[in-house]
Amino acid sequence: MPRVVSGMRPTGKLHLGHLEGALKNWNRLQHEYDCFFFVADWHALTTDYADPSQIRPNTLLMVGDWLAAGLDPNRATLFVQSLVPEHAELHLLLSCVTPLGWLERVPTYKEQRENIRDKDLGNYAFLGYPVLQAADILIYQAHFVPVGEDQVPHIELTREIARRFNKLYGEIFPEPQALLTQAPRLPGTDGRKMSKSYGNDIRLTDPPDVMWEKLRTMVTDPARVRRTDPGNPEVCPVYALHRVFSPPEHQQQVNVECRRAGIGCVECKRLLYENLRERLAPIADKSAYYESRPEQVRELLIEGSRRARQRAAQTMDCVRAAMRIAV
Question: Using CB atoms within 10 A as the burial measure, which of 108, 138, 250, 320 is most buried?
């Protein structure tokens, strides 16, 4: 069965962007591929090294949301990156063959340096995290990596690293393909891409009053100042969420009534709120179940990490032999 690898930084409770951008796709893939989904806690250290105290509790909360959203540890291997130290070994070996210029041209490196101002990102680990990402993928000899379009350059870099390693030491790694995730770029409450870093996210487990307050203050069409002003749904972040989480009849209603000022922004947001609550209530209930049982989640991850390490060890045996560093 073709192998898929993907990971997520442990940021704690997840938001709508995680659900549509990753989890919905992972749920489908676990029935079609040999899937390895991991908690990228070492990646989190590249930006949160000064205060790593939240990485462990956030791991358990995040994986609880994975399970609540439908991931099945009997169908996919769920594990923690740092519990498979072979990732770090392969990262070191791959860093020896990766030119510095390859890392400096990664688009997201410059983007995050510009957008994340409250942390010192001038460290090697942040510059070199694409090599660690390549190790995460190649150590399982993955065939596919599910990503959005903005992450395709990372997969191409992984392919370049694999090609260079194979040219130097022999054919060890298949070149993984990007498995493009057709997911919308969800706006946050301020209109920018939904992200915890921006503080504009709506979480899968927000209590009803918290969710409504976030939606109530969400930005809309800036040209619609008064209730009687007609709006343009195409430029409204609230309508972008309607397109994903509301049924077609509600999308059509908002699209028509907003343009002729037949519906106000508060009424439009209330309709979105009701649809979101209906969609997310089962996930929130299951997440609360796992949050109350952290040991169950922890044991699940330890078992998944054991299985992942067995597979990673096989690859590292081949890598050491190819590089002639095996004893």
Answer: 138
Q: What domains, with CATH codes, occur in the chain?
A: 3-186+294-323 (3.40.50.620), 205-288 (1.10.240.10)
Mean pLDDT to the nearest integer, 292-319: 98
Predicted local distance difference test score (pLDDT) of residue 22: 93
> pLDDT at position 192, please?
94
Which residue type, as a one-letter code, is found at position 321? A
- Calpha distance 240→233 (Å, rounded): 8
* Residue from 40, 43, 32 nearest 72 by CA: 32
pLDDT at residue 129, as a whole number:
87
* pLDDT of amino acid 197: 81
Token pair of 42 as six digits:
């070492």
Question: Could you write out the DSSP letters of every residue in 204-253?
Answer: TT--HHHHHHHHHT----TT--STTS---GGG-HHHHHHHHHS-HHHHHH
DSSP H helices, the chain, are 16-18, 24-29, 41-48, 55-68, 86-95, 100-104, 107-115, 124-138, 152-169, 208-216, 237-245, 248-259, 265-291, 294-323
C-alpha to C-alpha distance for 45 and 124, rounded to whole angstroms:
12
Question: Which residues fall within 8 angstroms of residue 5, CB to CB, at 6 or more apart?
Answer: 35, 36, 37, 38, 136, 137, 140, 142, 145, 176
Helix H or strand E encompassing 8: strand 3-8
pLDDT single digits (tens) 25-83: 999 999 999 999 999 999 998 878 889 999 999 999 999 999 999 999 999 999 999 99
Cα–Cα distance, 298 to 87 (Å, whole number):
20
